Amino acid sequence: MKAGDWAKALSAVEEAVAVMPDDLHFRMLHADLLLHKLRGLQSGLPALRQFVRDAIDKKSELWMEGALRQLFSSANDNSHFPPAERLGMGKDVVRTARLL
Q1: How many Cβ atoms are within 10 Å of 82's Cβ, its own excluded?
Q2: Secondary structure of 31-44 in the HEC alphabet?
Q3: For the chain, what percent of residues have pLDDT higher than 70?
Q4: I want to staple 37 with a disulfide (CB 3.0 to 4.6 A). Which of 6, 44, 85, 100 is the partner?
Q5: Using CA atoms in the order 26, 31, 36, 39, what is the torsion angle rounded to 10 degrees?
C-alpha cells in the first residue's frame, strides 16, 4: 500500500479477508481499496453492501462505525458513488444502531 500498488494491495487484502472474514480491519481495507483507491463500483458496491449487512447482523458498534466511515467520511472521495445507494445503506446502519 505504501508503494501505491493498489492492485497488489487488493490481492493481499482479498486473501486476508478469505482467511479471516470477521476481521474488521481487513474488511474496511477491502472496501476502501475497491471504492476509494481503485474506484471500482462494480466490485466495490457488492463488497460494501456485504460489509454493511455483516455489520448489521453482528450488531457491532465498531463494525457499524466502520461501515458509516466508508459511506460518509469526508476523507473519502465519494463523488463517483451513487448518493441514493450511500444514503440507503447508511439509513439501514443507523436504524439498527438505534435499536442497540
Answers
A1: 11
A2: HHHHHHHCCCHHHH
A3: 100
A4: 6
A5: 130
Rounded to whole angstroms, what are the CA distances from 86 to 6, 7, 16, 83, 96?
23, 24, 26, 5, 16
pTM for this one? 0.88
Residue 82 sits at φ, ψ, to 5 deg, of -55, 120
What are the grid coordinates assigned to 2, written together?
A: 505504501
Computed over its alpha carbons, how large is the radius of gyration of the chain?
A: 13
Q: Which residues contact residue 41 at a Cβ distance below 8 angstroms, ignoring those fewer than 6 apart? A: 35, 80, 81, 82
Q: How many residues does the chain have?
A: 100
Is-contact 77 36, C-beta < 8 A? Answer: yes
CB-CB contact of 34 with 44 (8 Å): yes
**pLDDT score of 1 more than 80:** no
Note the pLDDT tens digit of each residue in 41-63.
899 999 999 999 999 999 999 99
